[in-house]
Write a structure and sequence with these properties.
By secondary structure, the protein is mostly helical. The chain contains 15 helices and seven strands. Strand 6 and strand 7 form a beta hairpin.
């Protein structure tokens, strides 16, 4: 018994003491925190990826989110020069026009109307369906812009009025620029006078356009036409400067009505200048007196000593009296052949004009014009 009991107490042969660790399972070591976080991130990614996959599948089946209807309220959107379909879609989304850029973009890439969208400002509405947004953007009538038409012969004051009427640019803003026109690109020969350099044409004036910008555009147009016509070279061949040719062209705008008469009246002016005769043009007198409404002038107006008065001064006035168009500039550069020294319009409705070499012949034509006026309400 003693031996048996001893064996039990010693735990085994040889009398070695028992090991406490062997009486219970060893504790499992936990993975480091980094591994736990990584595992969590993987789970989150799987969940999110699954959601996005489901969302994309829903978009594929139902299409991306989109509003319905024409929308409400007002919002102005600018489509910039060079914008592609994705750019336009993003612009509309950022402005609150469409519910998702993807909805508009997917529509635009499969609809030919998207190719008709032009750069500019558009008046749209908030929360429009992509269909309605595309419909309105592809209609040029929905562009927000001013249209300013400057007729041939228009003078600076008339041009200021036309711009202010056709845009949101104020008259005083235009006048301030014209009082100090150094920023609009006038050539040196203009001596700071914009008269004759604001080219007559139709201009698009988008929101935000400044007085300086629109006036500079007009000057740039004049200089571009001068270049296209090779004005400087051709003027020199005639013995005149570019400024003088513009001046002659501006006179033609007021002294002739029909295209066929522009080169003929130009010839009369050159013939009188060559002979040292005063031009005696009522248009230059009216420019000084600011007379409007008829073609006549009074003795008092013709007596004005202004340099622009061609009754009192021999030669050309010191500058243009209006903005000439391309036709009259070309006529001034290419006058008709003839020896006429006089001309007069004998019918103000049709513009019929007669020419004469002598004063006696001219007087007969002038009497015909007076007779016309005695029987017409036009004069």
């Amino acid at each position: 018994m003693t031996d048996s009991g001893l064996d039990l107490m010693t735990g085994g042969p040889g009398g070695e003491p028992p090991r406490a660790g062997r009486r219970r399972a060893e504790k499992k070591r936990r993975p480091p925190w980094g591994r736990r976080i990584l595992a969590l991130l993987i789970v989150v990614a799987i969940v999110v990826g699954g959601y996005l996959g489901v969302q994309r599948a829903a978009d594929w089946i139902n299409g991306p989110e989109d509003y319905t209807g024409q929308g409400s309220g007002d919002v102005m959107v600018q489509i910039k020069e060079g914008a592609n379909g994705q750019d336009i879609a993003t612009t509309l989304f950022d402005a609150g026009v469409v519910k998702s850029a993807e909805a508009f973009y997917q529509l635009s890439i499969n609809d030919a109307r998207a190719q008709a969208i032009q750069p500019g400002f558009y008046g749209l509405r908030k929360k429009m369906s992509s269909e309605w947004a595309l419909r309105e953007l592809s209609d040029k009538a929905n562009r927000i812009e001013g249209k300013v038409t400057i007729p041939e012969g228009a003078r600076v004051g008339q041009i200021v009025t036309a711009i202010a009427k056709g845009s949101d640019i104020k008259e005083d803003e235009l006048t301030a620029v014209l009082d100090d026109p150094s920023s609009i690109g006038l050539p040196a020969v203009a001596n700071g006078n914009p008269e004759g350099y604001l080219f007559p044409a139709t201009y698009t004036v988008e929101p935000g356009t400044t007085a300086t910008e629109i006036l500079k555009e007009m000057v740039d147009k004049t200089l571009a036409v001068e270049k296209d016509l090779d004005l400087a070279t051709r003027a020199k061949e005639l013995g005149y400067t570019s400024e003088q040719i513009l001046t002659i062209a501006s006179l033609l705008e007021y002294e002739a009505k029909l295209d066929v008469d522009y080169p003929k009246v130009a010839r009369v002016l050159y013939n009188r200048l060559d002979q040292g005769m005063a031009l005696q043009l009522d248009s230059t007198v009216s420019y000084v007196s600011q007379r409007e409404g008829d073609v006549w002038t009074t003795p008092e107006e013709r007596a004005n000593p202004s340099e622009y008065n061609t009754y009192q001064n021999v030669g050309l006035p010191p500058g243009p009296i209006g903005s000439p168009g391309e036709k009259t500039i070309e006529a001034a550069l290419n006058p008709a052949e003839g020896s006429w020294l006089f001309f007069v319009a004998v019918n103000l409705e049709t513009g019929e004009t007669k020419y004469a070499n002598t004063y006696a012949e001219h007087e007969r034509n002038a009497e015909e014009a007076r007779e016309y006026c005695r029987n017409s309400d036009v004069c």
